[in-house]
Specification:
This protein is of the alpha+beta class and about 290 residues long. The chain is about 20% helix and about 30% strand. Keywords: Membrane, Transmembrane, Transmembrane helix.
């Protein structure tokens, strides 16, 4: 039996956001949206000699997806100095080291492994090859004598000011990719739909959002809309930060111009499943499945 991951993840988000009128969503002031990997490895994009991929399981497990290498190097201090210089070029990543003399386990992990995580692993691989490192067997016993943790540079989470914002996942796309998106549900008179969509497109350009598409359902003189906002693949030198509260404030401000309301009008009969209608797009094969 196939499972629609997007539906499951959206339902999970809606349960969180609508549990009661006082529910609160904690977000980072500037979030990274877009293409990532968690459940599966990007088979056709990256190939590693030292690193192994350990998938996330989600649900109650709530574990990180990880790239892990168990290696032995000639001179640990020299290697660590070079490794720290590489890590400094990837401020948005987590890196965790378990050390036993000249042996170590290198772990890169997160709930969303964007491309820049795999780029970090690739650069560490180059260093390991340069240092003539030896790949150790996974089953080999390893006593941890010391540890080093390099956290990602992220500001303290804050409360979202906008309860209408939902964060959603997706189905699997090209190369096992998923993507993290903002979803907004709303309804308004059909008469205003085109101009409303045009104004939202302008907001996306202002707020560093490069992908905007929507689904709709028109009935009589009204329409229900399901709006999706995200970005494409996120690389080391081209990471797009989205300020969620700033974006939400501009969306809410449109209520002064258009008679729209958050949420959907009517029952499931009017659920917006027509589309997707694309306004802005990047890396489409990683975002939409046109064959469905």
């Amino acid at each position: 039996m196939s499972t629609n991951l997007r539906v499951l993840k959206v339902l999970e988000c809606e349960i969180l956001f609508n549990f009661d009128q006082y529910s609160i969503l904690f977000i980072h002031p500037a979030m990274i949206l877009g293409v990532y990997w968690y459940f599966k490895f990007p088979e056709n994009l990256y190939h590693f000699k030292f690193f192994r991929f350990f998938q996330g399981y989600g649900g109650h497990s709530d574990n990180l997806a990880e790239l892990k290498a168990k290696v032995q190097v000639n001179t640990i201090d020299s290697f660590l100095n070079k490794l720290e210089k590489i890590k400094a070029q990837f401020p948005h990543t987590y890196l965790y080291l378990s050390i036993n003399e000249n042996q170590l386990i290198i772990t890169i992990g997160d709930y969303y492994l964007f491309d820049y995580y795999f780029q970090l692993a690739a650069e560490i691989e180059d260093l390991l090859i340069e240092e003539n490192a030896i790949l150790l067997e996974e089953r080999m016993s390893f006593e941890i004598l010391s540890q080093k943790i390099y956290n990602a540079e992220r500001k303290k989470p804050e409360n979202t000011e906008h309860r209408f914002i939902q964060l959603t996942g997706s189905d699997f796309m090209l190369n096992n990719a998923e993507h993290l998106s903002i979803r907004i549900d709303c309804n308004l008179p059909i008469l205003h739909k085109r101009n409303f969509i045009n104004d939202i497109t302008l907001i996306c350009r202002e707020e560093n959002i490069s992908i905007f598409y929507y689904q709709d359902y028109d009935f009589k003189d009204q329409c229900n809309l399901m709006l999706f906002f995200t970005n494409g693949r996120q690389y080391k030198d081209d990471i797009q930060l989205v300020h969620i509260n700033s974006f939400g404030s501009k969306i809410r401000h449109l209520a002064q111009k258009y008679p729209f309301h958050f949420g959907h009008f009517g029952g499931m009969k009017y659920y917006p499943l027509n589309g997707p209608h694309v306004e802005l797009m990047a890396d489409e094969s990683y975002i939409l499945n046109r064959n469905k």
